[in-house]
Amino acid sequence: AKDSGKNRYVVYDKTMHTEFNERLHLEKHLRGALENKEFELFYQPQVDIAGGQISGFEALIRWNSPELGFVSPLAFIRIAEDSRLIVPIGEWVLREACRFLGDVQAKKSCTYKISVNISVIQLLQDDFVEIVLDAAQESRIEPGCLELEITESVFMESYERIVGKLERLKAEGFRIALDDFGKGYSSLSYLQQLPLSTLKVDKAFIDPLTEDAYSQTFIRTIVALGHDMGLEVVAEGVERSSQLEILEHTGCDKVQGYLISRPVPEKHALELLNGPGNG
Ligand code: C2E
Ligand code: CA
Ligand code: CA
Ligand code: CA
User: Fold this and answer.
1) Nearest protein Cα to ligand 1, atom 22
2) Which parts of the sequence belong to the EAL domain (predicted)?
3) pLDDT digits 0-9 by tens, 196-250
4) What is the pTM of this model?
5) CB under 6 Å to ligand 1: residues?
6) Which residues contact 266 (CB under 8 A, 6 or more apart)?
7) Strand, coil or helix: what is 41?
8) Which of 87, 175, 95 is nearest to 135 (CA)?
């Protein structure tokens, strides 16, 4: 029965009930979090494999709630999306990350880049392109230094509208990365349909990299494919030096992962730039 869903009794078990309450609870606290300045951005360095130097950072949100303690983005981003709170939160992330990069460039060098995770809900906003332009201008950063990380979820709704916006942003000079490539249902056809600059290969492809000969074939093929399409290829979740060695051989452009550094607070991120090889 196709239309019977709405007014039907829903029999749910206790675990569902608990989950539902937990979501409501989180959402309640999430509502005031931006205003109460409970969010902070952490920054995880990306290293250029050939040069061995930090080329930029990915901004990752952290929520320290006075009532709930530290809450992982894995636990609240989805709720922020469902409640649309991700719109103001995401705008704050974008402006704060640009502000950080502006400072880094002023103190260090203008070649550093920043990557920011963008939710599909943000992309659906009419003023998204203007907000990105404004955030970059406000912090005096070149569009080419700001990379927007999107996932294949952009294919779930209003695909045409979203691709139109991504094309405008790409034309303005901003970089677009496809995040989590290889995770879940990623399809090769996505690579052709989106105006991409970068392919971020998911940790799931990096994890088995030392034990398994096939995984080396996969990663080599993905890097070659990305390069053929003119994309930069970044490996995520690199934890062991043996993985980095294999990635070097594939010609992969950049690495990000605990091997280099965990995501760290702003002050610590700046210190990383003073480290060996990053003068
Ligand atoms: P993501 O965009 O795929 O970010 C990478 C995640 O992997 C981060 O988790 C990072 O801390 C973690 N990671 C990095 N290197 C390693 C490693 O070597 N090993 C392991 N085990 N993990 C590593 P985090 O910060 O907890 O973020 C989780 C997810 O939450 C992100 O996945 C992203 O989807 C989302 N997220 C984080 N910040 C934002 C944000 O500002 N906006 C939006 N829309 N989503 C965000
Ligand atoms: Ca990401
Ligand atoms: Ca990712
Ligand atoms: Ca992700």
Assistant:
1) 237
2) 23-277
3) 999 999 999 999 998 778 889 989 999 999 999 999 999 999 999 999 999 999 9
4) 0.93
5) 44, 60-61, 72-74, 77, 90, 93, 117, 119, 179-180, 237-239, 257-258, 263
6) 41, 43, 100
7) strand
8) 95
